[in-house]
Design brief:
two-stranded antiparallel sheet; globular
Length: 271
């Protein structure tokens, strides 16, 4: 059964969150089959908070050090705005892990601004307010649920408006930022077990298929879409061709560089 992280999708693909596991000692191994999971078109993904819990067990990540200073600026390009929205929501999960209330509130406001730019502001008004309220009292589990709910609400509103394909870009933006964070953490305390979190061929194939079958020619030829399509092609051979194959530290670093450069493009520089 195919597995992956989300962040970091989104974080790392919009799976529902549960409470984060707090580690008492390093884990000897990772059994991804034991993770609670969500399904995205038959692609099975572990719940993101469970992946974060494993990362905590593998070395107590410096989550504040993983935060990006710049939340990006939107352009008139709707594909860029959708991708940026995904990366910002992913950033929200990182800020929650860092237990940074001011950053969480800033991200909540940014989510509202970006949602307005693609005409789905009403879908997240209450979520944005709740994110601020829950961050003020440091109810991190509730904040996680609100970010996840905001992502689902935004995508649902976009589908209602007929922007199904643009909604897919929100998920991809979240996955790209999430994978950047994941690889950054894994490479700092590398082990084959932690690198196994990157073994997600089914998700890469799913995203590649989505980008390869866009009905809108304008969207298909969009420079951001073209760049991400190429990035997915380049990452595919690095994440292990089959179960049981080890993802090397060198490949983890390469994936980190590719996703980092793509996030920089999405968030403004080179946009």
């Amino acid at each position: 059964m195919p597995t992956l992280p989300k962040t970091v999708t989104a974080l790392f693909c919009a799976a529902a969150l549960t409470g984060v596991c707090v580690a008492q000692k390093p884990a000897d191994s990772i059994d991804l089959s034991e993770f609670p999971a969500q399904s995205i078109d038959d692609v099975v993904v572990p719940v993101p908070s469970e992946v974060f819990g494993v990362l905590d067990k593998l070395g107590n990540p410096n989550w504040r050090g993983e935060q990006r200073e710049n939340l990006g600026k939107q352009t008139g390009n709707r594909a860029q705005v959708a991708l940026l929205l995904g990366t910002v929501i992913a950033e929200g999960f990182v800020a929650v892990e860092a237990e940074d209330p001011e950053r969480v509130k800033e991200i909540g406001r940014r989510v509202l601004s970006l949602s307005k730019a693609i005409n789905v502001e009403k879908a997240v008004l209450e979520r944005a307010k709740s994110i601020t309220d829950k961050a003020d009292v440091k109810d991190w589990q509730a904040v996680r649920k609100e970010f996840d709910g905001a992502l689902q609400d935004v995508k649902g509103a976009m589908v209602e408006l007929g922007d199904n394909e643009l909604a897919q870009l929100v998920s991809m933006g979240g996955w790209i930022r999430g994978t950047e964070v994941l690889t950054s953490i894994v490479r700092k305390t590398y082990s084959p077990d932690s690198a196994e979190l990157l073994h997600q061929p089914a998700l890469l194939d799913y995203f590649s298929k989505q980008l390869g079958t866009l009905s809108s020619k304008r969207l298909s030829n969009d420079r951001f879409v073209v760049r991400i399509r190429k990035m997915l092609e380049d990452i595919r051979p690095l994440i292990g061709a089959k179960d049981g194959s080890t993802i090397s530290l060198d490949n983890v670093q390469k994936i980190n560089e590719m996703t980092r450069d793509t996030v920089i493009s999405i968030t403004g520089k080179g946009a």
